[in-house]
Specification:
The chain is α/β, with parallel strands linked by helices. Helix content is 36%, strand content 33%. The protein has helices at 13-26, 39-49, 65-72, 87-96, 107-122, 128-138, 189-195, 238-249; strands at 4-9, 30-36, 53-56, 59-60, 63-64, 78-83, 99-102, 146-151, 154-159, 163-169, 172-177, 181-185, 201-205, 208-211, 215-219, 225-228, 233-235.
């Protein structure tokens, strides 16, 4: 089995040394081709060696990791971001279904990331997720973003604005989209709720998460129910009623 050709990119020599040691000790199917501590050196190494994988820090001198990826787009290698916690960056990673490891790096997180990369490399999957990540970062101000939906067959990318509502199916979730389309996600509804904008999506029932922009009518009652634009009627649980009405009024 061929080794995963890899480059480590980080502006801190100590971080490079630590990750290099961890990769050598715990990821024996990885071949380290080189390291870089700024995006110019990294771009040169990547173009020279054509790696299967890069471990990439975000904040670096002379530009950041996203600048590097923009310079190299379209991306034909896997990327695992290795970064300190940044709420916006992590949310963008989740939207785009890209792999990341938080500093300080744990052995289990590193090993799991490499296992995922091995599977993708063996399937010859181009890293389209990075293209969507970069697109999402560019459109931050417009608020119009795509989200990666893991399905049994792969990953489907959809505009968040096109999602009408989600219905829980145990460990799966059916996502209903405009124009009579739907996707079955291999995530539970709670995991997807964490990714979607709370000012736009409301959990009106344990089994339903709706986009308030697609509500056609609210019918009063103990909890009441909403009629969506596609004609679907969904009950609002009594426990969620106040939260739901507050969101509608905001």
């Amino acid at each position: 089995m061929p080794k995963i050709k890899t480059i480590i990119i980080d502006d801190e020599p100590g971080n490079i040394a630590t990750l290099t040691k961890m990769v050598a000790e715990y990821c024996t199917d990885v071949e380290l081709l080189g390291t870089a501590n700024d995006i110019h050196q990294a771009e040169k190494l990547i173009r020279q060696h054509q790696p299967d994988l890069i471990f990439l820090d975000i904040e670096m001198p002379h530009g950041n990791g996203f600048d590097l990826l923009n310079n190299l787009a379209p991306i034909n290698f896997e990327v695992v971001f290795v970064t300190a916690f940044n709420a916006y960056a992590i949310q963008a990673f989740k939207y785009s279904v890209v792999d990341y490891i938080l500093k300080p790096v744990s052995i289990n997180d590193l090993k799991n990331a490499v296992i995922k990369v091995r599977s993708k490399v063996e399937k010859h999957q181009l890293n389209q997720r990075i293209d969507y990540l970069l697109d999402n970062l560019k459109t931050e101000s417009s608020g119009r973003k795509k989200i990666g939906i893991p399905t049994p067959d792969g990953i489907v990318f959809e505009q968040i604005d096109d999602i009408m509502y989600l219905e829980s199916e145990s460990s799966y979730t059916t996502i209903f989209l405009k124009n009579n389309r739907k996707e079955v996600a291999s995530k539970n509804i709670g995991e997807l709720e964490d990714l979607l904008p709370p000012k736009l999506f409301c959990r009106i029932h344990k089994s339903y998460l709706i986009n308030i922009n697609y509500i056609k009518k609210y019918v009063k009652g103990r909890g009441g129910n909403v009629i969506m634009e596609d004609g679907t009627s969904i009950d609002v649980s009594q426990r969620k009623k106040d939260e739901f009405l507050k969101l509608l009024e905001s």
